[in-house]
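target protein:
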Amino acid sequence: MERSLKLLFLSGLIWMLGAVPMVHAQKFGYIDSEFLLNKHPDYRLVQNELATLSEEWKKEARKLEQDIKEMYSSLKAEEVLLTEEMYQERLASIKDREKEAVAFNNRVFGINGQYYQKQAELLQPLQSKIFDAIDKVCKRFSLAVLFDKASGPLMIYTDPRHDYSEFVLQELGIEK
């Protein structure tokens, strides 16, 4: 009787263990978004367009600075010929021009300036493509978490076996 109870208990235990779903460890991986961007041919086009725009805006900013310098040197040269009122008027116009230059630089290169807006606009489609490829790779390899090696000092050590950047490149159709 005791033996049959043990067998019944063991068979029940085995059945319960078999009925409990297996718990799988979650898989983690990482990518290097800088590597992915630099490998993508569209990124070079975006970089070139941004460089061209940036150069145009920098030329405009340098021209404003040059105009201000010329205004100051002209004021200095004519200082002895001007009345105090004329001198103050010219000085005020120079200060206004300096404010215009600062406003231009802030509008174009400031935190939410035209340069950064254009950069976001141009990179958005490329980032969407890369994110879609990342999503497919994560689903294909059943990854629970995928880190970005380039996004900050979060990762202290990475094992190359867990680098999925090449798979994302393959998903994007980009060869090495």
Helices lie at 2-19, 33-39, 41-78, 84-109, 114-140, 165-172. Strands lie at 27-31, 143-148. The longest strand covers residues 143-148.
